[in-house]
Design brief:
10 helices; 2 domains
Length: about 270
């Protein structure tokens, strides 16, 4: 079932939303996974008073069946509106964002990805010279960058040119490299959580292990058709799994440090430049 949500706003606001969706920075809204954003001029169907009048007339009239139908539509609408998103990465983002501190924001501003520190824009982390490997690395880098800028509440989140998808007007989430984009987002979020682990419930780390399992299965399924999937799984299982399994570890702060260091190494290896 597809739900259409109408938003009233300016032409500029529409273009900003459209751009954020196309670059992959805006994937959910009010608990919905966004499929598309389009412009449509519509006339208002009901004002608040008119809607109340409709319901009152429906229940007071002899045609009670019509009133029942309207009630059913209202109930279905409410169910749809409050249907939560099942995207575990979005939930992780919301948890970290809700507990963001000034110290966390300062450290995120200091994060410098490998491609931001070099001048050679032709050095790729994956197999040398392969177009597919370059796209995978770009998608992963775009995910890293998007997660950082989203946590920092950057007002104009526009992907840097080297990180744009093959067709700039598309979103990485609409390409075959979507898992790499999502992996980039999660890697940055998990790194942030490991840098600031205070008072995170066991359920949070359980959810991260579930996300890990999802990625492990996703890239295992790509082994036959994606040459980079083997390298990703090696990074996940050698750098993330051994340390993530130990958390939470309130009496062993070094466990979080070990995870953070290994995530940094994975970022460097899988991102676009190194």
């Amino acid at each position: 079932m597809k739900t259409v949500l109408y938003l009233k706003g300016s032409e500029k606001g529409f273009k900003n939303l459209k751009r954020l969706h196309e670059t992959g920075e805006l994937t959910t809204l009010l608990g919905y996974n966004i499929l598309d954003i389009s412009e449509e001029r519509v006339k208002p169907i009901f004002r608040r008073r008119a809607l109340f009048q409709t319901f009152r007339d429906a229940f007071s009239a002899q045609t009670w069946r019509i009133g029942w139908a309207i009630s059913a539509v209202l109930a279905v609408s409410l169910t749809l509106v409050f249907w939560p998103s099942e995207n575990k990465i979005d939930t992780t983002f919301q948890t970290i964002y809700a507990n963001k501190t000034a110290e966390m924001a300062e450290e995120l501003r200091d994060v410098q990805f490998s491609w931001e520190a070099v001048d050679d824009a032709n050095v790729f982390a994956f197999s040398q010279g392969g177009e597919a490997s370059a796209e995978a690395a770009k998608a992963f880098g775009a995910g890293l960058w998007t997660a950082r800028e989203s946590l920092l509440e950057t007002r104009d989140i526009t992907l840097p040119t080297p990180l744009l998808p093959p067709t700039p007007e598309d979103s990485w989430l609409k390409t075959e490299w979507a898992p790499y984009f999502d992996l980039g987002r999660w890697t940055l979020l998990l790194w942030t959580a490991s840098e600031f682990p205070d008072e995170r419930a066991k359920s949070f780390w359980d959810q991260q292990r579930a996300i890990f399992d999802d990625f492990n299965a996703t890239f295992e399924a790509r082994l036959a058709t994606d040459n980079e999937a083997k390298k990703v799984r090696h990074q996940l299982n050698s750098r993330v799994k051994p340390h993530l399994e130990k958390l939470p570890a309130p009496d062993k702060p070094e466990s979080y440090d070990e995870l953070a260091v290994n995530l940094e190494k994975m970022m460097d290896f899988l991102s676009i430049f190194r």
